[in-house]
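Mods, move this if it's the wrong board.
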Amino acid sequence: MPSTEKINSYATPALEKGLDIIELLARQPHGLTKSQIARGLSRTVSEVFRMLLCLEQRGYIAVLDRERYTLTLKLFRLVHEHPPTERMITEAFSIMQSFAHDSRQSCHLAVLEDAKVVMLAQMNAPTHAGFYVKQGSVVDIMESASGYVVLAYQTSDERNRVLAEWSRQAGKNPPRELDVHLASIREAGYERRSSYQVRGVVNISFPILDTRGVALAALTVPYIRHTSGSLPIDEVTEMLRNAAGRLSIAIGGMGAANAIAAD
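Not the wrong board. Structure tokens:
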């Protein structure tokens, strides 16, 4: 492992400034002006101006009205073009479509990215009304069933790394009961509990596992009970278990029946 001093000796200030701008704008859905970006990064306007111009020319940011800069969808498109992600989304589409049709519930596929949960794919239920999570949206790992499930099926080292990054971003420690919570997910093989964000929704989430039993993603249903025509939640849970197992096998991983939590 390279020492901190050696890593710092390889520092590239221009690249770091560009990445700082991208990370700052990622947390600002309405964009920021040049002056606001400079203040947010404790830099001068002249320092960030050339970076903004370069990022705009490369298509990573765009200028809105009132000279506010915002991220484009280029980063999201690049993620989808990454071969492992592209393959998982391709394999997931028909499985998610079939599940949504048979269960009459929406579902989404989510991954962890830099201690956040990113929704890679989403499938609507074939009903007039329903609940779904927007594709491409980013959610706090501690407010997402998908996040907890993926976190539960990581190696200890990777889990510690993600939690350290989450603490750095959130400015606080993880919940005290987190280890117990993750252990209960591994024991059950999935998460099923009331939504962390929306009343009346029960999240059901299963891991998508690689050959080591490590979660690459989570397949999740925000289950809602319709006034008529809803399948029982236990039946939907088993349907989702089968769908997640099929997707794991389709991408060369292991099915839920053979899953062993990595540690």
